[in-house]
Specification:
alpha+beta; about 180 residues; seven-stranded mixed sheet; 7 strands
């Protein structure tokens, strides 16, 4: 499949790096745009159209401007941010989801998003590898997002039977996927 400007594969100008505080506003904008592209058809147009970057700014400021910044990788095309991946360690007793903690360890991929225009260029794989390497990890994905589920399966993730819904997101159904792996050094 062709990417921007007719490019195929991993092209020159497509870069990965760790996110930094200067990226906060651009990450908030990319985050919302990715949601709107990813969840169109799974969530109502009204809900998606009401999402605005300003709503994501507190999260991104917390992640990147705190004394101990979060682990976030960004993908860019000629300096323009086009996606990101973020991981964290799930704290003991976490109640974010109703399901029991995964047996794959406490490393969680909390988000991996790319603009539709930059999918199928190898950036998703590169983001996943930068964020997780080959570590055991878990993630939550929309149950109706077959494309994402297929992507994660390709990299060794499988549903573990845990499921949840997000009430504030029109009761979007999610499933947890896990993979075993080699601990990061």
């Amino acid at each position: 499949m062709e990417g921007p400007g007719g490019r195929t594969g991993v092209a020159v100008g497509l870069d990965l790096r760790r996110a930094e505080p200067a990226d906060v506003e651009r990450l908030a904008a990319v985050h919302v745009r990715c949601w709107q592209e990813t969840y169109r058809g799974m969530l109502s147009d009204g809900f998606l159209d009401s999402r605005v970057p300003a709503d994501r700014l507190p999260l991104w400021r917390h992640l990147l401007e705190s004394a101990e910044p979060g682990v976030v990788w960004v993908a860019s095309d000629g300096g323009t941010l086009v996606g990101f991946a973020g991981v964290h360690h799930v704290p003991a007793g976490d109640t974010t989801h109703a399901a029991a903690p995964p047996s794959s360890g406490d490393l969680e991929l909390w988000g991996l998003y790319l603009l539709a225009s930059h999918q199928r260029l190898g950036l998703g794989r590169r983001l996943l590898e930068a964020a997780l390497g080959t570590s055991a990890a878990s993630l939550w994905v929309a149950a109706d997002n077959g494309r994402a589920i297929g992507f994660y399966r390709h990299f060794g993730f499988e549903p573990d039977g845990a499921a949840d819904t997000i009430p504030d997101w029109e009761h979007l159904r999610e499933i947890r996927m896990v993979r075993g792996g080699q601990p990061r050094q």
